[in-house]
Amino acid sequence: MSQSKIVAAAEAALDKLTKLNKKGEYDQQVNDLTWVLGSFKNDGNPDGVYQKVAEAKDVLADLKSKKPRSVAKALMDSLEEALA
After folding, report:
1. For residues 46-62, b (16+ Cβ closer than 10 Å) or e, as one string?
2. How deeply is 16 buried, as exposed, middle or buried, from its count of CB atoms within 10 A (0-12, 13-18, 19+)?
3. How many Å apart are CA 31 and CA 9, to the nearest integer?
């Protein structure tokens, strides 16, 4: 598992969730991803990043099942690949 892939996936998930967070429904995920990315930059430990990317993937997959056009397949594939 590549640390650069998981960080890129976390940043992509954060960007997408930030854009979708118009009503504050994804505040927790946005805050968590922001925090673990900052923590990773300080200590280099990717464990929290993996956990929060997995949680973000689940949230985005649920949203995609309800509104298929709201989340790109490429984003979901990149999250899957980073977590593999």
Report:
1. bebbbebbeebbebbee
2. buried
3. 16
| Higher per-residue pLDDT: 19 or 2 | 19
Q: Which residue do the tokens 């925090």 mark?
A: 35
Cα–Cα distance for residue pair 31/27, rounded to 1 Å: 6
Quote the CA–CA distance of 75 and 72 in Å, as a whole number: 5
pLDDT in tens, 21-51: 888 899 999 999 999 999 999 998 899 999 9
pTM: 0.88
Q: How is the chain split into domains, by residue range?
A: 3-83
Distance, CA of 17 to CA of 33 (rounded, Å): 10
